[in-house]
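quick one before i forget lol
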Amino acid sequence: MDPIFRTDRVSANLSTPVEGPAGALLVEGFAARPGIYVYMNADGTTRRELVPRDALWSADSILTLGRAPLTLDHPGDLVTEDNVGSLSVGDVSGEIIEGPGGFVRVKLAVRTREAKDALQSGKVELSPGYLVTLDETAGTDPEFGDYDAVQTGRDYNHLAIVDRARGGTQMRVAMDSAQMIDPITFEDNSMDEEIEEEVNEGAEEEEEAKDSEEEEEEEAKDSEEEEEEEEEEEEEEAKDSEEEEEEEEEEAAKADSIPQWATSLIEDVAAIKTALQPKKNDSRIDTDRIAWYNDRVGLQARLDALSGDVADDATNLDMAKAILKELDIASIPDAAAIQTALKVPTNLSFAADAGEDTGFSSAKSPYGQG
C-alpha cells in the first residue's frame, strides 16, 4: 500500500505502546514540525532554517517519510538497499498524520531488542534524516521569526531514535500510557540548550585545536633549534676535520721535502745502532762494516757541504769522485791522495767498491735498506 497522510486536528494524544506481530513494539510519536531549526556552521556560527507548514506537508515531501526505515541514532551515511539490513531496527507506517500545530505524527514498528531496550531506558526522541532543498534568502516569518534560509522541500531517507532531537523534546515516542502533547503551546526551550551545548562543544574544539596548533608550533620551533644546533655541530666537526687534514698535508709536505739521502741516512743510523748492539751469542763487532759506514757518513757530509749530488745507488768511490770533481781535482792518484784531499778523519774503506764481500746487499747501505 502506498503511503498516505491525513489530518487529525482534534487531539494530540499518542497511543500507548502495544506488542505487534513477531515481537514488534508498535508505538506512536511526533517526527517533525514546522518552524525554525538551528544548525551549526563549520566555523562555529549558527544558521536558522525555516521549515514552512506548506513545505513540510507538501505531498512530494511527506509521502517519502511513509515506509521509511527506522534506525537507532543517525547512521554515518544514507540508508540504502545495501546497508538497510544492518542499520534498520524497524520501520515507519505508511500512514502519516498531520497533528495540531502542523506536527508530523507517525506510527512505528520497533523490531529489534536493542532498539526496544533503548526506548525503555529513555532514549525516546525522534529525528528524521533527509535530503533538503534550500532557498538561501534570509527573511522574517510572521509566525516563527527571523531566518537565514528556507527549506522548500524534503526527501526523507530514514527516521532515527535519538537522545536529543533537533526539533525539540516534543519530537518523541510515547512510551507511557496515552500521553497528551500540546504542540500549539509548545515552546522549544530544549533548542536553546542544544544550540548552547553545540556552541560550547564547538568552542571547546576550537580551543583544543588552538592548543594543539600552539603545541605543534612549539614542537616545530624546538625541532628547528635542534636542527640548527646539529648543523652547527656538523659545521664545527667539518671545520676541525678540515684543519686536521691541512695539518696532515703540511706534515706530508714536510716529509716529502726531506732529501732521499737524508731519509736513507736516518735509516742507516737506526740500522747501525742495531748492529752495534752485542748479539746474544756473538760479542764481536764487525769493524769493517763500521769503517764502511763511517766513510759513508763522512763522504756524504763533505759532499753536502760542497752542494754536490750523486745518484741514490752511488758507491763510496762514486761519492769520493764527486767530491773531488767539486774540488776541481782532475784525477785520483791513489787512496792516500783521496784521504788528503777529502780530509776525512778515518781510513777510507773501498772494500764494497772493489768487489770484496762485506755481507752488504748494497754498496750504499750495509743493510740494503737505502
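fyi The two ends are 119 Å apart (CA to CA).
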